[in-house]
Automatic annotation (TrEMBL):
<keyword id="KW-0378">Hydrolase</keyword>
<dbReference type="InterPro" id="IPR029058">
    <property type="entry name" value="AB_hydrolase_fold"/>
</dbReference>
<dbReference type="Pfam" id="PF00450">
    <property type="entry name" value="Peptidase_S10"/>
</dbReference>
<feature type="compositionally biased region" description="Polar residues">
    <location>
        <begin position="1"/>
        <end position="16"/>
    </location>
</feature>
<keyword id="KW-0645">Protease</keyword>
<protein>
    <submittedName>
        <fullName>Carboxypeptidase C (Cathepsin A)</fullName>
    </submittedName>
</protein>
<dbReference type="InterPro" id="IPR001563">
    <property type="entry name" value="Peptidase_S10"/>
</dbReference>
<dbReference type="GO" id="GO:0004180">
    <property type="term" value="F:carboxypeptidase activity"/>
</dbReference>
<feature type="region of interest" description="Disordered">
    <location>
        <begin position="1"/>
        <end position="27"/>
    </location>
</feature>
<keyword id="KW-0121">Carboxypeptidase</keyword>
Length: 509
């Protein structure tokens, strides 16, 4: 095992208020451990190294001599590098989750890494003791992989004396992650490797912003961005007074979740989704826009139509003024069974503590999946990767809040303009978009709408953006057929292969 030397970050950002580090900040050192592993694959063994730990990022202090970097952050990551591949031009995938406040354990152990958690699925979550499996579909077969945790998640922390909240915001987080990518490429001499970013949830917000930052600030063009369960414009999913967009974009997801719970008996999921999308795009906006101008019989008819689509009582829809908020829907859908429906994955359920609760009080999908990830990441880092730390590995941290969106005062928080600008600047960058039909956190119809409005030529939209759908939720990889399909789609995306038909499970009526 060995440790890599500390190398100053090339970023020359200036100090800002609240970033004063302690007297020992300049003496901080990397805490890295490299271990050798082998993964048995059907076509033979694949040897790889895993370099695990925290790297010290540095910046040029204002007024100081160039190159005398001051440490300001210690980011935790695991870098997987396949052996014997001539790695100088092998693709590299940088992956991160979102939240804000989520570590990258989800993509790391759920989908991308050479080891994966046995988490179970809806209706059959894994029971302790929790364990890992070899991941024969790991992206490491096609590319080297770097999973990195954002500030205050995982083991990522500011240097002693510095304040973490400096990095708790869209712009600051973007700049920190871009600096990490540049630093890693420099340390590992991988500047000629095709560069990919993969994000999930708010990680797709991050990936789009980071990719644009890399191009705008460093003239580094990414080869591709994988957007898993994306959110590119928060105005499409944030329920707020006077904003009807979320009601429209969530409706097809409600219909898909209703289908998962038997509310559309005898129908195919795709037929239900198609009907719901047609209604959401054509009739629903006009109904909401009509407001008090809508005649009582028209409102009653609309409520009946919506209730039938999403599997709830039309009277409840009418009392909601035709506007069904997502946490309210997740509490209402299976109320007659005494169950709450999951938000991250609407296929999951849990008993309701209060049968009259107005909103979903806890997320059954996270509650049932997170324990397996928590147990296995802590065991894996220590037992297999030989990394130890005296701080808590933050799976999900509320300490990042309040998260700053100060650059978006009086307008919607969005990175669609960043993504469009990147695609206009970088003609070879491609995008893979992955949607879960049962995802009530980042609904697929909202993403479809935002992508269709990107300020890029139509031929770029059709030729450079690939969209895939899965019969699961936000973390669709907990559903085995979806995990296999998504892994294949990612492999094709990274290698540039033509999309192939993935054998999906039979669509149950």
């Amino acid at each position: 095992m060995n440790a890599e030397p500390t190398t100053p970050s090339p970023d020359t950002s200036r100090n800002v208020p609240g970033t004063d580090a302690g007297p020992d900040a300049g003496k901080r050192e990397d805490h890295l451990v490299t271990t050798l592993h082998s993964l048995a694959l059907p076509d033979g063994a694949m040897d790889y190294t895993a370099t695990t730990g925290t790297v010290v990022l540095r910046e040029e202090p204002e007024g100081e001599e160039y190159g005398r970097g001051t440490a300001y952050a210690e980011l935790f990551s695991v870098s997987y590098v396949a052996q014997g591949t001539g790695d100088q031009e092998r693709p590299v995938v940088f992956a991160f989750n979102g939240g804000p406040g989520a570590s990258t354990v989800w993509l790391h152990l759920g989908l991308l890494g050479p080891r994966r958690v046995d988490s179970g699925d809806a209706g059959a979550p894994a029971a302790p003791p929790h364990h890992l499996l070899d991941n024969h579909e790991t992206i490491l077969r096609q590319a080297d992989l770097v999973v990195v945790d954002a500030m205050t998640t995982g083991y990522s922390r500011p240097v002693p004396g510095a304040k973490s909240d400096r990095h708790h915001g869209l712009a600051a987080d973007r700049d920190l992650m871009a600096s990490f990518v540049i630093d890693w490429l420099t340390r590992n001499q991988r500047w000629t490797s095709p560069l990919f970013l993969a994000g999930e949830s708010y990680g797709t917000t991050r990936a789009s912003a980071v990719a644009a930052r890399l191009m705008d600030r460093y003239y580094v063009a990414v080869a591709g961005i994988a957007l898993i369960s994306p959110v590119l414009d928060f105005g499409t999913i944030r329920f707020a007074e006077g904003n009807d967009r979320p009601y429209i974009h969530y409706l097809p997801t409600y219909a898909a979740i209703a289908h998962a719970h038997g509310k559309h008996e005898g129908r195919l999921l795709q037929d239900v989704v198609d009907e719901a999308e047609a209604f959401a795009e054509q009739e629903y906006p006009a109904l909401l826009a009509a407001g008090a101008r809508l005649a009582p019989e028209q409102k009653q008819e609309a409520a009946a139509r919506i209730g039938a689509l999403i599997g709830v009582d039309p009277d409840w829809v009418q009392r909601a003024n035709l506007r069904v908020e997502h946490l309210a829907f997740l509490a209402e859908l299976l109320r007659d069974q005494g169950l709450l429906t999951g938000r991250i994955d609407g296929r999951f359920t849990a008993p309701a503590g209060d049968g009259n609760t107005a909103q979903m009080e806890t997320d059954a999908s996270i509650d049932q999946l997170a324990p397996s990830y928590t147990a296995t990441i802590n065991q894996y880092l220590r037992r297999e990767l030989d990394f130890t730390s005296d701080v808590v590995y933050e799976i999900m941290s509320g300490r990042v809040h309040p998260w700053s969106y100060q650059d978006f005062e009086n307008r919607s928080v969005e990175v669609a303009s960043d993504l469009a600008r990147l695609l206009r600047k970088s003609p070879h960058t491609k995008v893979l978009v992955s949607h879960g039909y049962h995802d009530a956190a980042t609904p697929f119809h909202a993403s479809e709408h935002v992508l269709a409005q990107l300020a890029i030529p139509r031929e770029d939209y059709t030729e450079r953006i690939r969209t895939e759908y899965y019969e699961a939720g936000h973390m669709m990889y907990c559903h085995e057929p979806s995990r296999l399909a998504l892994s294949q789609h990612l492999a094709e995306f990274v290698t540039g292969e033509e999309p192939s038909a993935v054998e999906a499970p039979a669509d149950e009526a």
